[in-house]
Write a structure and sequence with these properties.
The protein is built from 16 helices and 10 strands. The chain is of the alpha/beta class. The chain folds into 2 domains: 296 residues, 3-Layer(aba) Sandwich (Rossmann fold); 108 residues, Dihydrodipicolinate Reductase, domain 2 (2-Layer Sandwich). It has a 6-stranded parallel beta sheet, sandwiched between helices. Strands 7-6-8-9 form a 4-stranded mixed beta sheet. A hairpin with a 5-residue loop joins strand 8 and strand 9. The longest helix is centred in the last third of the chain and has 21 residues.
């Protein structure tokens, strides 16, 4: 392991910039403000509630993560956003229908004070949404420069010492990496030529990296996970991560599948379907946007179960994913899973899961943790892809040539060992046991 970095203190204000100010972003902002006022708990956030064991169990050292490492405090966070719909934070949160008015009304003034900046938005990439709050420019390079000026202005007006950017926008149409994505020079030329290979989320990622702002992609879009921007992030000393927040059904897969694999139980089929009625559901009703999400969700089991290594158990797995837009459900998504498993002597069994989840409620603490951990990484001088944050993503971004790790428990161990390393402690192993197997 490389030499431990010196982590700069978390002095001053941290600006959290949010492309997309809909259900996820407003739920996150409202939750942080409610936690600051002591009226709600940040449940689901590792940075706020989780402890980290240090040393042997006999040492009984398990501080909170936020006490062990110099993370930015909730009181130091300020928020900015972009969205094609001009609703302020309160209007957007009410329209999203995630949080009750009883929780929103006490912080109404705070939420109304956050008005989204005009967005870089193009209906060619998100066909089921539209809005008037959109930037105009002669080409995509000019739009990127407008975003850079937005970042600079926000930092100055809000008195921010540091900023991070977390994409909370919609799922764009499916794109594959091409020539325009290979080098920074090719990428910038493609922006100037208004090349359709350059999607809006890439323009945000470019603007963030050029401004030295850590960037995480919470959607399955092709965004910062292209060679041009990955190299630019390394060259500029900027941490990046993604992609696609791990919330409902995929969260359950990455909990259940590792357990089945650990017991060497076979899986013949895994059928997954979802119904949801929020803005995300409307966007995913477009086949090209659904294709982007489908690729993200389908890759989980393939990498996690390693069918080439265990062909007799997982080599013929049939994996099907469906998403259905159903407006009455709103943000309260329901995910159904039917899992056909195989046990001793080939005898079949089944597992059925019905997860009635609240997608934005599960995503909000992810946004908080990513913001604080990316800021930590930046202050530690870490740059490029932060694989230790794979814990939070459906389709983790990896270094070239590496396959993504999807096992939630391996991801969790890697995250905490990275935190131990940053804090000057030894990574946790189970070596050095005494006669009775005690550490």
């Amino acid at each position: 392991m490389s030499e431990r970095p010196q982590v700069r203190p978390a002095d001053g204000r941290l600006g959290v910039l949010l492309p997309g100010f809909g259900a996820v972003a407003t739920t996150f902002v409202a939750g942080v403000e409610s936690a600051r006022r002591g009226t709600a708990q940040p449940i689901g956030s590792l940075t706020q509630l989780n402890t980290i064991r240090l040393g042997k169990r006999t040492e009984a050292r398990s501080p909170l993560i936020r006490d062990f490492l110099p993370l930015a405090g909730l009181e130091d966070l300020v928020f900015g956003a972009w969205d094609p719909i001009p609703d302020d934070g309160y209007e957007s949160a009410v329209n999203a229908g995630v949080l009750d008015r009883a929780d929103l009304d006490p912080i109404r003034g705070f939420l109304e004070g956050i008005e989204p900046m005009p967005a870089v938005f193009d209906r060619e990439y998100v066909r089921r949404l539209d809005g008037p709050n959109v930037k105009e420019g002669k080409n995509k390079r000019e739009l990127a420069e407008q975003l850079r000026r937005d970042i600079q202005r926000f930092k100055k007006e809000q008195g921010c010492d540091r900023t991070v950017m977390i994409w909370c926008g919609s799922t764009e149409i499916f794109l594959r990496p091409g020539p325009a994505h290979q080098t920074l020079e090719a990428f910038e030329a493609a922006m100037e030529a208004n090349d359709p290979a350059i999607a809006p989320s890439m323009i945000y990622a470019y603007a963030a990296i050029m401004e030295g702002v850590p960037y995480a992609n919470g959607a399955p879009n092709l965004s910062a996970d292209i060679p041009a921007l990955e190299k630019a992030a390394v060259d500029g000393g900027v941490p990046i991560g993604g992609k696609d927040f791990k919330t409902g059904q995929t969260l359950m897969k990455t909990i259940l599948a590792p357990g089945l694999k650990a017991r060497m139980l076979g899986i013949e089929g895994w059928f997954s379907t979802n119904i949801l009625g929020n803005r995300d559901g409307a966007v995913l009703d477009d086949p090209d946007s659904f294709k982007t999400k489908e690729e993200s969700k389908l890759g989980v089991l393939e990498h996690l179960l390693q069918p080439k290594m265990y062909p007799e158990l997982y080599g013929n797995l049939y994996h099907k994913v469906r998403i259905n837009y159903y407006p009455p459900r709103g943000d309260n998504k329901e995910g159904w899973d039917n899992i056909d498993i195989v046990g001793w002597m080939g005898y079949p069994m089944q597992i059925k899961v019905d997860f009635l989840c609240r997608d934005s409620i599960l995503a909000a603490p992810i946004v908080l943790d990513l913001a604080l951990f990316l800021d930590l990484a930046s202050r530690a001088g870490m740059s490029g892809i932060q694989e230790w944050l794979s814990f939070y993503f459906k389709s983790p971004q990896t270094a070239p040539g590496l396959y993504p790790e999807h096992d939630l428990f391996i991801q969790h161990k890697k995250l905490k060992n990275t935190l131990r390393w940053l804090g000057g402690e030894e990574p946790l192993t189970h070596l050095g046991l005494d006669y009775y197997g005690q550490e």
